[in-house]
Amino acid sequence: MKIVDRQTFLTLSEGTVYSDYEPCIFGPLAIKGVTIGRDFYVQEIADAIGCASSEEFSDILIAAQADGRSVPMDFDCEGRDGIFDDSQLYAVWEPHDVKRLIARLIACEEPPRKGE
After folding, report:
1. Is residue 114 part of a domain?
2. Which among 15, 10, 11, 16 has a CA at the least distance from the CA of 1?
3. Are residues 30 and 54 in contact, defined by beta-carbon separation less than 8 angstroms?
4. Which of 12, 81, 89, 96 has the smallest count of CB within 10 Å of its CB?
5. How many domains in the chain?
6. pLDDT digits (tens, 9 = 90+) for 5-50
7. Is residue 102 in a domain?
8. How far apart are CA 68 and CA 50, in angstroms?
9. How far apart are CA 3 and CA 23, in angstroms?
10. CB 32 within 8 A of CB 15
């Protein structure tokens, strides 16, 4: 992982995995989309709820909280960042970090081995 300023971040390619960063504090994990001038698209990870509107977003989560129903996720839905703070820093994941995270996530889906 490396820490970069906004100017550097905007030059990075689509698909860059990152978190907003302030000294010793990380924001949620996200994926950078295309840069548009001083702005860029972002794919949120934790709240990537599959929905058509902010009203539906709320309705889905309220229902899930009330009765435990499954929430549809959409990891192919970007939005504009829209925060034009030139002092913002970013914790950028390097390719080997992403590969290790993928391996760990895959391991979460594997059943435990006997004796472990």
Report:
1. no
2. 16
3. no
4. 96
5. 1
6. 999 999 999 999 999 999 999 999 999 999 999 999 999 999 999 9
7. yes
8. 16
9. 10
10. yes
Per-position b or e across 94-106, b if 16+ CB within 10 A of its CB? eeeeeeeeeeeee
- Is residue 116 domain-resident? no
- 115 in a domain, yes or no? no
pLDDT on residue 79: 93
**The predicted structure's pLDDT at residue 110:** 75
Q: Would you state the structure tokens that stand for residue 27, as one six-digit string?
A: 């924001």
What's the longest Cα–Cα distance across the chain? 55
* Host domain of residue 54: 2-109
What is this structure's pTM?
Answer: 0.86
Closest CA to 20 of 38, 5, 40: 5
CB 60 within 8 A of CB 49: yes
